[in-house]
Amino acid sequence: MPDDLDLMQLAASGELLATVDGVAYRAASMVFADDGGVPRIYCRHADWPTTPAARLFATSRELAELAEITERHAAEVVRLSRRVAELERQLARPAETPVQNQERMFRAQQAAQPPPPDPVSCPDCRAAFKNERALRMHQQRAHLGMQTQTAKAPLAQFVEPLGWHCAALGCHGAHARDLHDTAFCTLHAQRQIANGVELMKEM
Length: 203
Description:
The protein has 203 residues and is of the alpha+beta class. Among the domains are: 2-50, no CATH class; 119-152; 154-203, no CATH class. It is 46% helix and 14% strand. It is rod-shaped. The N and C termini lie far apart (153 Å). The model is unreliable at 153-161 and 193-203 (pLDDT under 50).
């Protein structure tokens, strides 16, 4: 057994290097067994692969490698099982119609768009609008036109001391005369502008 080897055995089995003056010089590579006590000669290095300790070590290493490979294969089996289950669930679901596909794509596009801005209100009439552009259009159409008409409103003057009557047919009141068209009073001059119809004048 390797445990029974001693220096005599190793010397006898060593490689002869030279013989000088009747002395043989041999080289031997040894394996020592060290269990925490005094190391002892276990075997020659050349004999190590065939020893029980070497075979036991090789077996334990192979078992560790097999355990690692088995663990990897088990994880792969679990992953493939989950994938198969997912594919089966997808196949079990009814096929999506073209209309449903378009609706789903439309909902995805709507979700990707930013939310609409908060509505804004007109400072003059408190009306609500969806954005600043709509508010500006409203102000130009509604309030700017009213301001322009107000700015162009006819200036009135008092009735002349000798008496003055509006040239509009049927107007017999002594109303204030319009300075833009002195033939009409301020009441009928404004109606002409509003209706776009020229009132008849008295001959």
